[in-house]
Amino acid sequence: MAEANVKITEIFYSLQGESNTVGLPTVFVRLTGCPLRCGYCDSEYAFYGGERMSIAEVLEKVAAYGATYVCVTGGEPMAQKHAPELLVALCEQGYQVSLETSGAMALDSVDTRVVKVMDLKTPGSGESHRNRWENLELLTDRDQIKFVLCSREDYQWAKLKIHEHCLHEKVADVLMSPSYGEIEPRALAEWVIEDNLPVRFQLQLHKLLWDDVPGH
Description:
The protein has 6 helices and 9 strands, in the order E-E-E-H-E-H-E-E-E-H-H-E-H-E-H. The chain is α/β, with parallel strands linked by helices.
């Protein structure tokens, strides 16, 4: 039987730019491909191409950085058949592993040791119809839910969903960030404060530091 492999766009070492581990040195394993086309996507270069690598080859490259944290991202990692096996293998090596996922794919095959950082796509993303709401039942108090907001209407929608599903009680953090260039960060911060919303406001650190150059 052929060894399981995944298609990789890049593997690189940087600071985590978002989530509740923001600022921590992290190895990023970016898988190729995504079935969604969110209007604000900042990783379109990962939609196509990539290099086939065995899971053993991925582990070897990750190990060379000597890091504690590993983030599997995309694209949409769960669109690849062998992504769950990669996540298991990383956990077995003792890394603290997180998965950045759009929430549009089933998450029932994700190892329970993995911290899931799951988007809920707002109407402004153009992909809210792809939200897989049953994934909410698979999230634990170690996981995180992320909203990227394009407008005041998106904010109101997200606020409704937070209260409707008691999201702040399900997960470690509900993350809320402005779509780059679409909402003034200060405006979103003031809405959160005004409503005393139980979320963690965040900006994308990598964009502030490196202007979102791939590989950072």
